[in-house]
């Protein structure tokens, strides 16, 4: 082989070696690039996972915070309800304490008055007031149709017997009073309903019993600021029933003068009324009422005599009102 051929062969071998070297370098470069790409992909995946984990943790934290806030609101609501109940209970206790204090003061005053003689009516009212402490049930006010008070009392008592409510409803009362009416025709004593349209009932606060009472003919309902009826205090019961109790006691004792003093007086005249004299020396003269004495059925009227007002005492039946 010639030198030229040997040189060409050597150069060819060198080129092959260089080509192989370049291929290996390229392969190594590709492998390196792939390795870097893999590492980059791993880093990206880890970042994504980290972000997802962070988001999940943040969501969990928000959920926990929300749950904690709801729990705190629930606790606050329960505490508020408890506080409201406590305030209502305290208000009721204060009212009871005030009533007891008032009753004690009243009893003290009554004890001081006991040194003075009492008539039969006053004694009966005092005994009734004391008995209220031991009576079962509470006193309530029923609203009725005006003029139906006595009928309502009778109907409720019949329904109590029919429904077997003797252990729940104990007493029904229509407050009455004696009225002494004075007119030009004379004096007349009548007994009438003291508070038209209202009846007192003593009972336990039982819903079934209240329903039966409400459904009684003539009853429109219980009196109270809310759906729950409001019971009367002992003092209120005494004030509403005292005139009737005193009147009955005085009649039973035969004390007519004292009974007459307890009556409500009504006259058909009022101070300032214009009247005409119908009897006596001043007949047909006009006059003005200046004073009224129902117990004696006398009027003092001013009659104009010679231009001067002159007081004249006349009986109720000696004058007539001017229209």
The name CATH uses for the topology of one domain is: Alpha-Beta Plaits
Please mark out the parts with pLDDT under 50 across 5 or more consecutive residues, or reply none.
Answer: 21-27
- Helices, by number, come to 6
Sheet-strand content, in percent, reads 15-25%
Helix content: 40-55%
CATH architecture of one domain: 2-Layer Sandwich
Shape: elongated
H-E string: HHEHEEEEHEHHEEEEEE
End-to-end C-alpha gap:
171 Å
Q: Could you state the CATH homologous superfamily of one domain?
A: NusG, N-terminal domain
As a whole number of angstroms, the C-alpha radius of gyration is 51 Å
Biggest sheet layout: 5 strands, antiparallel
> What is the CATH C-level name of one domain?
Alpha Beta
Polypeptide structure, described:
The protein has 323 residues and is of the alpha+beta class. Among the domains are: 122-253, Alpha-Beta Plaits; 273-321, SH3 type barrels. 54% of the residues lie in helices and 23% in strands. The protein is built from six helices and twelve strands. A hairpin with a 2-residue loop joins β10 and β11. It is elongated, with a radius of gyration of 51 Å.
Question: What are its keywords?
Answer:
SH3 type barrels; Alpha-Beta Plaits; 12 strands; transcription termination; 323 residues
């Amino acid at each position: 082989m010639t030198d030229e051929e040997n040189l060409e062969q050597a150069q060819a071998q060198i080129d092959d070696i260089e080509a192989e070297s370049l291929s290996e370098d390229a392969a190594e470069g590709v492998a390196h690039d792939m390795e870097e790409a893999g590492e980059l992909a791993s880093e990206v995946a880890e970042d994504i996972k980290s972000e997802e984990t962070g988001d999940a943790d943040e969501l969990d934290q928000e959920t926990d915070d929300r749950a904690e806030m709801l729990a705190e609101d629930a606790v606050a609501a329960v505490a508020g309800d408890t506080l409201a109940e406590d305030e209502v209970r305290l208000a009721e206790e204060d009212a009871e304490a005030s009533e007891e204090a008032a009753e004690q003061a009243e009893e003290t005053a009554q004890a001081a008055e006991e040194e003075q003689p009492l008539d039969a009516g006053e004694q009966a009212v005092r005994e009734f007031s004391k008995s209220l402490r031991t009576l079962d049930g509470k006193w309530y006010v029923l609203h009725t149709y005006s003029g139906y008070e006595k009928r309502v009392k009778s109907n409720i008592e019949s329904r109590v017997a029919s429904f077997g409510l003797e252990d729940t409803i104990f007493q029904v009362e229509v407050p009455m009073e004696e009225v002494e009416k004075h007119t030009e025709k004379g004096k007349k004593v009548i007994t009438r309903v003291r508070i038209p349209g209202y009846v007192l009932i003593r009972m336990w606060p039982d819903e079934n019993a209240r329903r039966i009472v409400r459904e009684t003919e003539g009853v429109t309902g219980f009196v109270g600021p809310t759906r729950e009826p409001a019971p009367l205090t002992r003092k209120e019961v005494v004030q509403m029933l005292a005139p009737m109790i005193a009147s009955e006691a005085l009649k039973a004792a035969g004390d007519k003068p004292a009974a007459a003093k307890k009556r409500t007086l009504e006259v058909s005249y009022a101070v300032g009324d214009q009247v005409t004299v119908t009897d006596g020396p001043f007949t047909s003269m006009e006059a003005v009422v200046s004073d009224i004495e129902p117990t004696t059925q006398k009027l003092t009227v001013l009659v104009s005599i010679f231009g001067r007002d002159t007081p004249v005492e006349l009986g109720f039946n000696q004058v007539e009102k001017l229209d």
